[in-house]
Fold:
Amino acid sequence: MQKKIFLGINIFIIIGVFICNFFYQMTGFGLLLKSVCSVGFAILGIINLAYAFMTKQKNIKFFIFMSSGLMLAMAGDIAIAFNFIIGAAIFALGHVCYFVAYLMYRKFDKLDAILTGAIAIFSVLFLVFFPLLDFGGLLMKIVCIIYAIMISAMVGKSIGNAIAYKNVVSIIIAVGSILFYVSDFMLVFDRFSNAGMWSSYLCMAAYYPANCALAFSMLMYIFTEKEEQLF
Structure:
């Protein structure tokens, strides 16, 4: 019964965030709806953290760092509307929390290093050499490069976990991390090129599902702690 209640709460909040995200995009990207969406996935993380404590999960550090990442993602999403560098810095701290959570799930190994390196090299080369990007100065470019390396580590580690474990939790985390990367990729186009509104829509279409997936993975971890590989 308890599982069904928490699953229902998760589904209800995720649907609410998706609906709010739709109206956020359709009504001109207002700060109020943006904040509601972010608060939604952050609350989801707190609820699942509380459930982890209730069920006395052994790997509680995973849940603490995941929920911390969600809280920082919420703060960064709101802050970036006022100051890009401050928002990016908060997001970067969130990525550190996610990365540490992934380390709590599985230790860092050569596969993770290879994946992280490959994604980071692609990301940095894109930021440095793509001709349509205009950062308006060296400082902003450096900020974006540092941020790109950090999210590359997050994505690389999540994919490594999914390849190693091949279970529901690792796959959900990998999907959420990849969506986060896509969102940030679109954010670069939105902020530093004349790409048009399509980049804004794609950015938000990926961002909120990304964080909802990461929050939902916490619940799935509790449900399937002893789950065997899917394939």
About this structure: The chain has one domain: 2-223.
